[in-house]
Amino acid sequence: MSKKICIVYTHHKLGDLIWQLPYIKAISEHHNEKVDLILRKKTQAKNLLKDLVYVNNIYYNEFRKGLAYWLDVFKLKKIFDLENYDFVYILDKVNKPAIAAKLSGVKNIIGPGLRNQKKWITNKDYLDEKDWKLNYSEQSQKFLKLNSIDCDDKFPKLEINIERLKEGNKDLLVEGKKIAFGVDSFEDFKMWYEEDFIELANLLAKKKLFDYIYLICGRDKSHIAKKIINDSKKHYFIDCSNKDLKGVILAIKNSDFYIGNNSGPLNLSAALGINTFGLIATDPVSELKYSKIKPIVPDEYVDNVWIRDRSGMKKLKPQKVFDEIIKSI
């Protein structure tokens, strides 16, 4: 008899969701069933994960705080009542989905058990409080191991049907060699400077490695793409700041390689199988060990140190980035 499985993940960042794909797949394979997902709308998961063969339905919940907390609990309970799940897995420490599953009568509520969550879940083996210091991938790996779930491949992989992305994005389908620059980040201290992207483009142009460069950034950081275009006075840049996730994915998939700040699109590019270079100077490169991202760091870089000051990115010189790319392509 088939079992109904739901997996809940509450983080809103695109990159964080991508890091969880190996563990979502491992749970699906463990039960030999497709899984339903409950995620934040901001992840755009219904576009991002639509083509994954191990995913069935995707529901959105905002996981709010304050007065809306219990409204979200009862929205989750409504989903659990409708679907009548046999298992609800929670991939982070939040209580809300565990409470909703308990109210809905779900028999198997499996979570990492950090902080107060252990009051609501049914599994008896939890993560330790010291595991709070692990990164999200390592937390999920230990969580699955405690629950006897194998995860043979810890590197995120994302399958996308490119044809469904072309509608409304014909302007991205230009002839010639394309590469992509990821020029923004959710955290400003991780962003390389606009003038350094311009200098890197000049170095790559001399080697004739592209005809066009997609500039990948969010609408709220569109000024970065515009500054690069205006200051460079070059016509080979394509501003993608007005594109939704489908357009961003299409641009990345059309690129020979991707170079960018440590952000969601960087993780997306690696998961899509694109040759991906990460510009890292102000945060730990060790966090990328379960990714196929190729980190490029300054000559005197020290790992496992956070520098929450964008000026630290100036230590990573365009010539160093260029040299590392040339060695790898």
Describe this structure in words.
- Helix 4 packs across helix 5 (96-104), helix 7 crosses helix 8 and helix 7 (194-206) packs across helix 11 (318-328).
- This protein has a six-stranded parallel sheet with strand order 8-7-6-9-10-11, with helices on both faces.
- It has two domains: 5-146, Glycogen Phosphorylase B (Rossmann fold), CATH 3.40.50.2000; 167-328, Rossmann fold.
- Helix 5 (96-104) links the parallel strand 4 (87-90) and strand 5.
- It has 329 residues and is an alpha/beta fold.
- The chain is globular, with a radius of gyration of 21 Å.
- The chain has helices spanning 14-19, 21-31, 45-48, 69-83, 96-104, 136-146, 194-206, 222-232, 245-253, 264-271, 318-328; strands spanning 5-8, 35-39, 55-60, 87-90, 108-110, 178-182, 212-216, 237-239, 257-261, 275-279, 294-296.
- The longest helix has 15 residues, at 69-83.
Following the backbone from N to C, one meets helices and strands in this order, namely EHHEHEHEHEHEHEHEHEHEEH
- Fraction of residues in helix: 25-40%
Query: What is the architecture of the largest domain at the second tier of CATH?
Result: 3-Layer(aba) Sandwich
SS content category: alpha/beta
CATH topology of the largest domain: Rossmann fold
Biggest sheet: strand arrangement? 8-7-6-9-10-11
CATH superfamily of the largest domain: Glycogen Phosphorylase B
CATH class of the largest domain: Alpha Beta
Number of strands: 11
| Count of runs of 4 or more consecutive helical residues | 11
For the largest beta-sheet, the strand count, sense and barrel status come to: 6 strands, parallel
- How many distinct folded domains? 2
* Average pLDDT rating: 96
- Flag low-confidence runs: none
First and last CA, distance:
50 Å
Shape: globular
Beta content comes to 5-15%
